[in-house]
Specification:
Largest sheet: 7 strands, mixed
Order of helices and strands: EEEEEHEHHEHHHHEEEEEHEEHHHEE
Number of domains: 1
Structural class: alpha/beta
CATH superfamily: Ribonuclease Z/Hydroxyacylglutathione hydrolase-like
Bound molecules: zinc ion
Low-confidence stretches: none
CATH architecture: 4-Layer Sandwich
Strand content: 15-25%
Length: 347
């Protein structure tokens, strides 16, 4: 998460947030859990849904000892002796499903994800091929990063593995036809790409509640980035398409996001997110007035100092905006004599 871009939304509890092992009932039968994380984005929100004799859990937290310790307390104290029967993962990122394997071992719960997200989690967890590193390094070279950053990423290797417990080897698939009945409520999945390949948000039309995962955060923009595995992809088109599918969602819906705080005024947020990416596309296009490397475009989009880790997100977001313009035919690219892409306005 690189860009901070807060909207004038209505935070229903103001500044109030739950302590890690003390959930807040944010709506009837829905507990808001907030786990700390040891990174710039310093927390994740999970939601426990009361299902009568059991619970359903939305996302799990990172697979790290602090999150496990908090979960030990939650399992022993706040679940009123009732088991977690279903764990639903919104998408494959480590803060969302990092503890799925561990929690399933402890609880025997079912694990639900979209097929593509589950496959992505499994492949990210299992990818330790040597050849992957060479392709990763080529991608970051082609978009203009220096050897220092590339060496850092090479040494890091598969850091997904270090942030998760084993991704469950079996799962239940969330499809278009899936309807979750949890407690008295009916939840339907809203699929979308851009932040991840097939993210699942859950919407309850009767009570007008939306479990938004990472797609509709109120204060930071979800990372919309190109990664080395799909260097020519256009995730921004997918994300903007998703934002365009929310017309049927109630204007006064309560959004329960995976980061920041629960809010109303989804329409304002969607408009701001669309405008934000429109402005970023303009900056990207302007930065390519003369043939530019990806890194040069990144410096136009991200003016503050970035360390190697922040750079990995920033260059990914930069290439997402570049690729969107390439796909639309507004930009073109050529490999220069150093094997780096030069992006410029299409002739
Ligand atoms: Zn995410």
């Amino acid at each position: 998460m690189v860009a901070a871009m807060e909207s004038k939304v209505d935070y229903i509890l103001g500044e109030r947030v739950p302590e890690p092992a003390t959930p807040i009932e944010i709506a009837e039968g829905i507990l808001w859990i907030r786990l700390p994380m040891p990174m710039a984005l310093d927390h994740i929100n999970l939601y426990l849904l009361d299902d009568g004799d059991s619970w359903a859990l939305i996302d799990t937290g990172l697979g790290d000892p602090v999150s496990m310790g908090t979960w030990e307390t939650l399992l022993a104290t706040h679940l009123a002796g009732r088991p977690i029967r279903r764990v639903i993962g919104t998408h494959f990122h480590p803060d969302h499903v990092g503890l799925a394997g561990w929690l399933l071992d402890k609880t025997g719960a079912e694990f639900w994800m979209s097929q593509i997200e589950w496959l992505s989690a499994r492949q990210a967890y299992l990818d330790i091929e040597d050849g992957s590193s060479a392709l990763m390094q080529r991608f970051y070279h082609q978009v203009g990063l220096g050897q220092g950053e590339i060496d850092t990423y090479r040494e890091l290797g598969n850091d997904y593995r270090s942030m998760v417990t084993p991704i469950p080897a079996t799962y239940n698939r969330v499809t278009d036809a899936t309807v979750f009945k949890i407690g008295g409520r009916t939840w339907v999945p809203l699929f979308g790409s851009g932040h991840s390949p097939d993210h699942v948000a859950l919407y309850c039309p009767e009570d007008k509640i939306l479990l938004g995962g990472d797609m509709l955060l109120p204060r930071i923009t979800p990372i919309i980035a190109v990664w080395w595995q799909e260097p020519d992809g256009d995730p921004l088109a997918g994300y903007l398409e998703f934002l365009g599918t929310l017309g049927h969602v109630a204007d006064d819906v309560l959004v329960l996001p995976a980061h920041n705080r629960p809010y109303r005024e989804l329409r304002i947020r969607v408009t701001d997110l669309v405008d934000h990416h429109g402005e970023r596309l303009d900056v990207t296009f302007d930065a390519c007035a003369k043939p530019a490397t990806g890194q040069e475009v990144m410096k136009a989009l991200f003016t503050r100092e970035l360390d190697a880790f922040q750079t990995r997100f920033a260059i990914g977001e930069t290439v997402a905006h570049i690729n969107n313009l390439l796909h639309k035919g507004a930009l073109q690219r050529n490999l220069d004599e150093n094997g780096q892409f030069r992006y410029e306005r299409a002739a």
